[in-house]
Amino acid sequence: MSQLNDRLDVLRGPAPAKGHDARTIAALTANPGCARRALLDAAGIDKDAIAVHLGKPRPLAKSSIALRSGAIFEQQVKEDGGAELVRLLRDVLKLPLPEAAHTDLSAVGTQDATLKVRHTYTRNAILDAARSTTPSRTLLDHPVLQLTVGGHRVFLEPDVVAFQIDGVFHIIEIKSFAVVDRQASPVKVAAAVTQAAAYVLALRELLEEEGFDGERMVAHDVILVTPLDFTRRPTASRVDARKKIDALTRQLSRLTRVEPLLEHVPASTTFDLALGPDERPTRDPKDLEAALSTLPIRYTPACRHFCDLAYVCRSQTRDEGLIDVLGIDVRDDLGGVDHISTALRLADDTRTPAADQSDLAAALRHAHTVRAQLRGAA
Ligand code: SF4
C-alpha cells in the first residue's frame, strides 16, 4: 500500500490531497471506465485547478453567491452548539433527545491538509461511542471518514454524524435547496441521498473493521436538513437511502483497482502545478497536457455533469476525432470503430470493412444513401 501511496504522491506533487465528496464518488461510479478520473481522484488531485490552468471552462464551478448561501445556512443550522439541529432531530426521529454534546472537529482546521488528523479524531470518537456501555448522544461536526474506492482509501467529509441515538448512528446532510410544500427538486434530493449513502458506507466500513455490526449500527435512513418553503427556517426529513446504498455498493465493487492503471503510466508523471511564491501555477500548460495524455480517458458528453475536466477531455477527444465525442449511444452502435473518420469512410464505401464490420458497414452505407437522397430532394 505504501508503494501505491508513493506513486500517488508523485502524481499529486506537494499539494495536499483533496478529499472526496458525494459528487466525486457519484462521478467515479457514473464513468467507471475512465482511468484518468480514477487515478486523479485516488491521488486527491485538484481537477478544477488543472482545468483552470489549461484555460478551460469549469463545468461544476458554483457561483460565489450559491456557495455563500449554502455556507450561511449550514452555519445557521449548527450554531449554538447544534441547538437547532438537536431540535430538528428530536422531531424527525421522534426521540426524547433533550440535549446532545456537540463536538466540532473544525477546531483542528478545515483545510485539506487537516484531513488525516480529523479522520483520526473522528475514528476515535466513533469507536469510543460504539464501545461505550452508556448511551451517548453526540453530534460530531465536520467529521472525516474513509471509504475504499477502487482498492484505495479516500477521505469523505459528511456535514454531521449524530452519534448513537438508541444505539444507532445517523448521517445528517445539510443542503440549502428549498423544500416547498414538502416537495424538493428530485435531482437535488437524489444527489444529496447519494452523498449520504457514501457516508453511510464509510461509517459502516469503519465499524466493521473493528468487529462491529456496521449494517445494524448505522441507520439506512439519512436525515436531510433543508430550508422550509421560502424561508431560511430549517426543516429535517428522514429519507430511506437503502436503494442508493445498495446501488453504490454494487458500483463500487465493480470499480477497477488503481494499481493496474498505474502500470501504464510513466513513473515520473506528475500533475504538480508548481506553485510560485504568489501561489500561482508556473507549470507549462503544454507540459501539463502531455502529462494528462498519459492517463487514458473514456469521454462521454455527460462528463460535463460530473467532472471538472469535461472540457479538457472533450477537446482531446475532438482533436483525436474519436467517436466518444458523439455520445454513448453512437459509441455503442458503432462498437469496434473508434474514429469518426473510419465511420465516414465505411459509410461512403471508401474503406473496406474488416470481416466483423460488414453488417455495420452496410448499415452506415444505407444511412449515407438515405441522407444523400434527402439532401437531394430538399
Ligand atoms: S471528463 Fe475526462 S477525466 Fe472526467 S470522467 Fe470524463 S473522460 Fe474521465
Write up this protein.
This protein has 15 helices and 8 strands. The chain is α/β, with parallel strands linked by helices and 378 residues long. The chain has 3 domains: 90 residues, no CATH class; 191 residues, no CATH class; 44 residues, no CATH class. The strands form 2 sheets. Strands 1-2-5-6-7-8 form a 6-stranded mixed β-sheet, sandwiched between helices. It has a two-stranded antiparallel ribbon with strand order 3-4. Strand 3 and strand 4 form a beta hairpin. Helix 14 crosses helix 15. The protein is globular, with a radius of gyration of 24 Å. The termini are far apart. The model has no long low-confidence stretch (mean pLDDT 86). It binds iron/sulfur cluster (SF4). The site of iron/sulfur cluster (SF4) has 12 residues, from helix 3 and helix 12.
Please give the alpha-carbon distance between the first and last residues. 64 Å
Spatial extent as radius of gyration: 24 Å
Tally of domains: 3
User: What assembly state would you assign to the polypeptide chains in this entry?
Assistant: single chain
Succession of helices and strands: HHHHHEHEEEEEHHEEHHHHHHH
**Major pleated sheet:** 6 strands, mixed
**How do the strands line up in the largest sheet?**
1-2-5-6-7-8
The backbone outline, from C-alpha atoms, is globular
